[in-house]
């Protein structure tokens, strides 16, 4: 794209959400520019650190129905998106296994109650399978004899976050998006474009004061020979811990959940908790090699929901994906891209037209008009 041509869309922030939005808009034939303060690998995003589990039912224990429904719909969309990207991305739909140690057995009925209360019955039926005795080992041979009970949530998935970010960057290049990596955009000094979509995650805080960070810490280890076949969640009184197997015997072990925008390195306490959790799932993790200990902050709004806020003019801000970014991003990004394209046509020019759009949108409760509601 020539520098002289004003793009239809400027996407500001090219982490997970921004990449998906820009890629979709470019795929629809628009001229798109994308700006990110970090590199094409996405190493400055929360998305870079995330475990990328796509677990709407397991997350129903801590999330409301809207998030579960966005997650279920997005889980169906991911294979279609990945199939169109120019590089392969590890994607698995082999379920989640939930287990607990005897000392934490009080957590099990709480988890089950929350899932059953928050998730639609149609998702729980056949999607939440009780395991006892040898059934745990039948489902996950590496854990035979290690846990007396568990639940298999067979419909859940996961992907490789870093492969996805790289493949999306390649997809942006393929669709001729004008990418500006290592280019920070501060405050509302947005680049020139007909419509701007602000997807800066926690970097959008200067223009969105109620946004906050929730720190998460993860370990990446190399553990040949254990051969877990799906993410394993370990119920724990403080936060859900998981061990997610990626390709080539790499495991992501996470994640802490700590209020505050602290991006400092992983604490000794958290490292001990995470690595002990993995060791308690399978003692062979004792011989694993630590590849990385990472921390990042999840961009979070007060109600823990994502939000798409139109400023009443030419800017749409998309944020608040919290701990569910990968799980819900396809639907959130699709909603953003659809709205932005309608904005470009000039059909949404005032509050009435916005209300009309909102009432007809698939995920209408995601949309807000700036200053019209105080909650976001
Ligand atoms: C430890 C951890 C584990 C997680 N695990 C999971 C999981 O298992 N499943 C799941 O679904 N989700 C998970 N998440 C959540 C997920 O990572 C986030 O919800 C998601 O990354 C949010 O996407 P985003 O695009 O809004 O923000 P980000 O991915 O953070 O991207 C924001 C981008 O904006 C850029 N930016 C910021 N400021 C500026 C600026 N001034 N100018 C230009 N660019 C800027 C950044 O460089 C970044 O690339 C996890 C998160 C963490 C931290």
Could you give the topology of this structure?
Elements: E1 9-12, H1 16-27, E2 32-35, H2 46-49, E3 53-54, H3 56-59, H4 65-84, E4 91-92, E5 96-99, H5 107-118, H6 121-124, E6 129-132, H7 134-139, E7 149-153, E8 157-159, H8 161-174, E9 178-180, E10 195-198, E11 212-222, E12 232-234, E13 241-245, E14 250-254, E15 258-259, H9 268-281, E16 289-300, E17 307-310, E18 315-319, H10 325-345, H11 351-360, E19 367-369
Parallel strand pairs: 1-2, 1-10, 2-9, 5-12, 10-18, 17-19
Antiparallel strand pairs: 3-8, 4-8, 5-7, 6-7, 11-14, 11-16, 12-13, 13-14, 17-18
Bound molecules: flavin-adenine dinucleotide (FAD).
The site of flavin-adenine dinucleotide has 43 residues, from helix 1, helix 2, strand 11, strand 16 and helix 10.
Enzyme class: oxidoreductase
Family: Belongs to the DAMOX/DASOX family.
Cofactor: FAD
Report on this model:
The protein has 376 residues and is of the alpha/beta class. It folds into 2 domains: 1-81 and 176-210 and 301-376, FAD/NAD(P)-binding domain, CATH 3.50.50; 96-154 and 212-299, D-Amino Acid Oxidase, subunit A, domain 2 (D-Amino Acid Oxidase, Chain A, domain 2, 2-Layer Sandwich). Helix content is 32%, strand content 23%. The protein contains 11 helices and 19 strands. It has helices spanning 16-27, 46-49, 56-59, 65-84, 107-118, 121-124, 134-139, 161-174, 268-281, 325-345, 351-360, and strands at 9-12, 32-35, 53-54, 91-92, 96-99, 129-132, 149-153, 157-159, 178-180, 195-198, 212-222, 232-234, 241-245, 250-254, 258-259, 289-300, 307-310, 315-319, 367-369. It has an 8-stranded mixed β-sheet with strand order 6-7-5-12-13-14-11-16. A 7-stranded mixed β-sheet has the order 9-2-1-10-18-17-19, covered by helices on one side. Strand 12 (232-234) and strand 13 (241-245) form a beta hairpin. Helix 1 (16-27) runs parallel beside helix 8 (161-174) and helix 4 (65-84) crosses helix 10 (325-345). The chain starts with 8 loop residues before the first strand and ends in a 7-residue tail after the last strand. The mean pLDDT is 96. It binds flavin-adenine dinucleotide. Flavin-adenine dinucleotide is lined by residues 12-18, 35-38, 42, 44-47, 49-53, 184-186, 199-201, 203, 216, 218, 254-255, 296, 298-299, 319, 321-327. It catalyses: a D-alpha-amino acid + O2 + H2O = a 2-oxocarboxylate + H2O2 + NH4(+). Residues 8-337 form the FAD dependent oxidoreductase domain. Belongs to the DAMOX/DASOX family.
């Amino acid at each position: 794209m020539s520098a002289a041509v004003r793009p239809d869309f400027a996407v500001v922030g090219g982490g997970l959400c921004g990449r998906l939005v820009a890629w979709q808009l470019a795929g629809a034939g628009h001229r798109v520019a994308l700006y990110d303060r970090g590199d094409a690998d996405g190493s400055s995003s929360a998305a870079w650190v995330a475990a990328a589990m796509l677990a709407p039912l397991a997350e129903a224990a801590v999330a409301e129905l809207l998030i579960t429904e966005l997650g279920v719909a997005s889980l169906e969309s991911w294979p279609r998106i990945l199939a169109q990207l120019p590089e392969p991305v590890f994607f698995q739909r082999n379920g989640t296994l939930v287990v607990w140690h005897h000392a934490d057995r009080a957590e099990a009925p709480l988890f089950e109650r929350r899932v059953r209360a928050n998730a639609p019955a149609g998702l729980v039926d056949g999607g939440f399978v009780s395991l006892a005795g040898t059934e745990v080992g039948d489902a996950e041979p590496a854990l035979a004899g290690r846990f007396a009970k568990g639940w298999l949530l067979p419909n859940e998935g996961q992907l490789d976050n870093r492969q996805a970010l790289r493949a999306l960057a390649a997809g942006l290049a393929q669709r001729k998006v004008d990418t500006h990596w290592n280019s920070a955009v501060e405050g509302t000094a947005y680049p020139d474009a007909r419509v701007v979509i602000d997807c800066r995650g926690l970097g959008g805080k200067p223009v969105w004061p109620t946004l906050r960070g929730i720190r998460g810490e993860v370990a990446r280890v190399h553990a040949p020979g254990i051969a877990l076949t799906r993410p394993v969640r370990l119920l724990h009184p403080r936060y859900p811990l998981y061990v997610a197997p990626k390709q080539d015997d790499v495991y992501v072990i996470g994640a802490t959940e700590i209020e505050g925008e602290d991006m400092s390195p992983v604490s000794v306490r958290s490292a001990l908790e995470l690595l002990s959790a993995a060791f308690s799932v399978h003692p062979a993790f004792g011989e694993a090699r630590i590849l990385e200990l990472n921390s990042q902050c999840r961009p979070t709004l007060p109600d823990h929901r994502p939000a798409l806020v139109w400023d009443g003019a030419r800017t749409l801000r998309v944020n608040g994906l919290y701990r569910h970014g990968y799980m819900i991003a396809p639907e959130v990004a699709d909603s953003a891209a659809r709205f932005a394209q309608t904005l470009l046509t000039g059909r949404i020019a005032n509050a009435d037209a916005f209300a009309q759009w909102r009432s007809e949108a698939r995920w209408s409760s995601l949309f807000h008009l700036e200053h019209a509601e105080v909650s976001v």
